[in-house]
């Protein structure tokens, strides 16, 4: 099985973040995905992930570690682990799922886990979104 589509998830995220393209970032995640946030919080589902990434992009922080220097992929049926090392040396790991022939991230435990975002209820107002960040 080719892992090119999985490897490209990491590269596509870096490109979307660099362009500030929130729609492209959110499109990398399954509708029922969960993204880990700082302080043990989580963004669950597309609306919460959109709000979290909107706040993160608005922060102006380097969210990709300077780009991808290497990517590793482990596939087991319709699930896969993507693990990318950024130019900063930090390893970012996600779980992807194959649905209808398309790989998307289902569990992202690292991209926003160390990014300080406003508390729940403030993210939506800060970025003009209609939905506040939901935490699980």
TrEMBL record:
Transmembrane segments: none annotated. Residues 11-104 form the SnoaL-like domain. Gene3D superfamilies: 3.10.450.50. InterPro entries: NTF2-like_dom_sf, SnoaL-like. It holds the Pfam family SnoaL_2. This is SnoaL-like protein. It comes from Terracoccus luteus.
């Amino acid at each position: 099985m080719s892992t090119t589509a999985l490897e490209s998830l990491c590269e596509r995220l870096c490109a979307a973040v660099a362009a500030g393209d929130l729609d492209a970032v959110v499109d990398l995640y399954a509708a029922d995905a969960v993204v880990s946030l700082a302080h043990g919080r989580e963004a669950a589902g597309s609306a919460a992930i959109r709000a979290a990434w909107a706040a993160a992009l608005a922060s102006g922080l380097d969210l990709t570690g300077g780009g991808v220097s290497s990517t590793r992929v482990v596939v087991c049926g319709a699930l896969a682990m993507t693990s990318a090392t950024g130019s900063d040396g930090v390893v970012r790991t996600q779980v992807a799922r194959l649905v209808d022939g398309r790989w998307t991230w289902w569990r992202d435990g690292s991209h926003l886990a160390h990014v300080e975002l406003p508390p729940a209820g403030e993210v939506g107002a800060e970025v003009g979104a209609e939905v506040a960040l939901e935490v699980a």
